[in-house]
Amino acid sequence: MIDMRFGPQVCGDLTSAASREWLVPDGLGGYAMGTVGGLRTRRYHGLLVVPGETPASRQVGLVSLDPAVTLPSGARVRLGAHEWSSGVVDPRGFELLERFDLVDGLPRWRWRIGAVVIERELAMLPGRSCVAVVHRLVAGGPVRLELSAACTWRDAHGERRADGPTPQVEAVADGAVVEGAYRLAGPGWAPEGQWWLGVHHREEANRGLNADEDLWYAGRFVGELERPGDTVSVRAWAGRLDEEPPPAAEIVEAARRRNRQVVAAAKPADDVDATLTLAADAFVVRPGGRSVDVVAGYPWFGAWSRDTMISYEGLFLCTARADEGRELLRAYAATLSEGMLANTADTGRVEYNTVDGTLWFLHAVSQHVTVTGDTDLGDELLPALRAVIDAHVAGTRYGISVDPADGLLAQGAPGTALTWMDARVYGVPVTPRTGKPVEVNALWINGLAGLAELTELAGQDADELWRRHGQATASFRERFPSPTGWLHDVLDAPAPAYPLGGAALHDDDALRPNQLLAWSLPYAPMEPDEATLRRVGNGLLTPLGPRSLAPDSAEFVGRHRGGPAERDGGYHQGTVWPWLLGPYVDACRRSKMSVDDVFIGIEAHLTEYGLGSVSETADGLAPHAATGCPFQAWSVAELLRVRRKGQ
Fold this sequence. Notes:
Elements (H helix, E strand, L loop, with lengths): L3 E3 L1 H4 L2 H5 L2 E5 L5 E5 L10 E5 L8 E12 L5 E3 L2 E3 L5 E4 L4 E7 L2 E8 L2 E9 L5 E10 L3 E13 L13 E4 L2 E4 L3 E4 L4 E11 L1 H5 L5 E14 L5 E8 L9 H19 L4 H11 L2 E2 L7 E2 L2 E2 L6 H13 L4 H12 L23 H16 L2 H20 L6 E2 L6 E2 L13 E2 L2 E2 L6 E2 H20 L5 H17 L10 E5 L10 E4 L8 H4 L9 H11 E2 L2 E2 L17 H7 L10 H10 L9 H5 L12 E2 L7 E2 L3 E2 H13 L2
Antiparallel strand pairs: 1-9, 2-3, 3-4, 4-5, 5-6, 5-13, 7-8, 9-10, 10-11, 11-12, 12-19, 13-18, 14-15, 15-16, 16-19, 17-18, 20-21, 22-34, 23-24, 25-26, 27-28, 28-29, 30-31, 32-33
Helix pairs in contact: 4-5, 5-17, 6-7, 6-8, 6-17, 7-8, 8-9, 8-10, 9-10, 10-11, 15-17
């Protein structure tokens, strides 16, 4: 895998160290997460973040274990790091870091205090909400090590304050149980019990959100490190509190062994491929130990069907997880209603609110059968997939229906944003894209052809599907090309001066990346034209992927920054989306254009933000600083998929 190693000039510089984040998932939807320098910059950071019934319903438990070393001289040196609402950063343990490594996906810190060197490793027990933190004396000594446990128990999207109830901490033999929800275990537990007031999260401040909280100092663990090789370890776990997990060192070794196996099973072609394979593993989870699902992004997203299906090929078919993929596709098929796939979003409710999620599902099933030869699954799901087509032809929710005049798919209803460009500001869609969006119709045509192939594999008549495919393809080729030299983004859209349903319609020719699907999908409606792709690339492409809108557009927003309204307003108005690099590369390859240089920037990005992973978004203007979730499923999946296709 890519060598993730940072020395004192990164670790000791707060801006550099705090802007690089690591993630260790538990396989259930929970995680441990923080920064290279040890400073918590988000409300979501913690050593034990516990999953709930849905992937997004997480609780923050153990926040930090702050090390303090008492040297033979009697001097006490604190190695933790906190930022306070006053603006002060204290302690500043990152200044003593001589190295940070990410080894087999697991973080390792190495502090030097003169001749004394102490190392920390962290891992989660695969398949259980349990973290192990191991401290090892590497050189020098003897020293005493204290580990101060800062705790809370709250929703991951919020904060807890001292003016509320005091956390209940019950002493047990080797530590404590906090709020009856999770247990801490380690040597020499000494209860304390006081509030740490005004802990500040700089990234939440940057996002315009409440940035301060209070933490409960529950107590400290104390151990002696007499000689090099001695360890002091702490474990924290939720769920079955009486069922003690394995020793901490065994948890670290088990996690490392498992991560190596995950990578080896995928047979990576190079170090980048191996790194992306392990990154992909973080998103495949079993909430509550039940059916497999996909976390759209860490640390704040849960499961979204559109993200899951766009990510499907990269996460499952490129990583030797076809059996789990089969299980996932069957489970999602069971949610179909009126021809639409459920979008079981972060609300925890089953919602049907996308026009493209179902079409991406058709694509995922088709690719699964094509890649694996699993015709049994195709036969099993065929009736449900045929029902999807019938429902779209007849018309379903939100005005989603096939226009009989041209065979293209239209969509839109007041107040809705049904495509992947679904941002809202104060409940009002920023880009409703009512009418016939280009990528929706590319997916529709792709879905018709893919389903026709599955139908023929099952020995059934596919003539009607091929007829619809032919009509829609002919209409697409006739109507979507624009005089601008690229494709219209939406056909038959309400004119700006008219409300939805008004008399005037127009064809929107804004330069957006959605048209890439018209050339990139397996059954794409158009053959790519090099001149057109160069126009699209010249207007949209950045080192981290295509922008969502060209910079010369009046609506272009170059910085994805500010409070929620500002960020949502610019979400799809110029912000870069790395996942779109997949369709761009596919289209270029079909046009016989070289893409050897396209991956340079995004591969370098693997060490810049979410370590070993790919961000959700980035600024549309240079230097294209990453924004959004540091670890995003479809960004990783699409990069992994198109790199593999080119090998």
